[in-house]
Design brief:
The chain has helices spanning 5-29, 50-66, 97-101, 170-173, 194-202, 216-228, 257-263, 273-282, 292-300; strands at 36-38, 47-49, 71-74, 79-80, 87-95, 108-115, 118-126, 134-139, 143-146, 149-150, 164-168, 176-177, 187-188, 208-211, 231-237, 242-245, 268-272, 283-284. By secondary structure, it is α+β, with helices and mostly antiparallel strands.
Length: 304
């Protein structure tokens, strides 16, 4: 039997509290001395700081105390196996580490609870123009919120070139924009934090977001936020070469549960259902061999 609305609301409250507590630590240490290391095994920079681990430990400790039967997966390597494998928390303690390490106040702390691989609770802390920041939060059937304000995805009826969108990794994804729509689908604005961008999408600031290769902890909280704000989440099925609705991080049972969460990495398109559908119809993936140079040129033509 799944979680009822009372349980979801209580879990959402706990997730929101954890996000606030994570945010307080991040703000207190912002622009202070940091030990930054590169955990990447490729040419791409993937920084990690002691704060990533410190905040993850803080969140995990809270979960283990309040919900000892729940599983936990954290970006920085935490795996807590559970008696109740249906309920797993997915944590990104500091999304936007490179921004944070460089003193740019665009970062997030993302916390989600998944039931059978489906995000049902999400909370994302972000710094904001006030001193304390803000937390986007949502739970299944309860709407998406910031404080007392209910959130809604963009109300635009069609893609608008004067509105901002996110095309993170689009240049390297292999997807192309149909020539007649270049420059018509929105100004690309990637700000370096997927969780932050999904929060803004749930608020209707971004028309839509496209991420070429996000991990589960990048998007788990954002998925439920966008859904509860009236939007949709679509993934690219690489085997079928088609878009389909996101269902679960663990839809396949070919591997153990925690490996499915940790290894999930698919192109994701989120936002207003109407705008997402329109975007799906103006992009395509050529069957011919990927041409990197042409893809770069195609990307930069978006803002012309």
């Amino acid at each position: 039997m799944g979680l009822d609305q009372r349980e979801l609301k209580e879990l959402s409250s706990s997730a929101t509290d954890m996000a606030w507590n994570a945010g307080k630590v991040l703000l207190k240490r912002f622009r202070g001395p940091l030990n930054v290391q590169d955990k990447s095994t490729s040419k791409r920079v993937d920084p990690v700081t002691e704060l990533d681990n410190e905040v993850e430990d803080l969140i995990v400790k809270t979960i283990k105390t309040k919900f000892p039967d729940h599983g936990v997966i954290g970006e920085e390597g935490t795996i807590v196996e559970s008696k109740n494998s249906d309920l797993v928390w997915i944590i990104d303690p500091l999304d936007g580490t490179l921004n944070y390490a460089n003193g740019i106040p665009i970062f997030a702390s993302s916390i989600a609870l998944c039931e059978k691989g489906i995000p049902v609770v999400g909370a994302i802390y972000v710094p904001w123009i006030n001193e304390l920041g803000r937390v986007f939060f949502a739970y299944k059937g309860g709407g998406a919120w910031v404080d007392e304000t209910r959130l809604s995805v963009s109300s635009e009826k069609s893609l608008h070139k004067g509105r901002v969108s996110v095309l993170s990794g689009f240049a390297n994804s292999g997807f192309r924009i149909k020539p007649e729509f270049r420059g018509e689908i929105g100004e690309p604005r990637a700000i370096g934090s997927i969780a932050y961008e999904m929060g803004l999408t749930s608020e209707g600031i971004y028309q839509y977001v496209f991420f070429s290769s996000p991990k589960s902890w990048d998007v788990a909280a954002g998925i439920i936020l966008v859904e509860e704000a009236g939007g949709t989440n679509i993934i690219w099925n690489k085997d079928k070469r088609m878009w389909e609705s996101f269902i679960s991080f663990t839809i396949s049972r070919d591997n153990d549960l925690f490996s499915l969460f940790r290894n999930w990495q698919l192109p994701l398109l989120s936002g207003s259902s109407m705008l997402v559908e329109e975007f799906m119809n103006v992009v395509y993936l050529p069957k011919k061999r990927f041409d990197f140079t042409s893809s770069i040129k195609n990307y930069f033509s978006l803002s012309k």
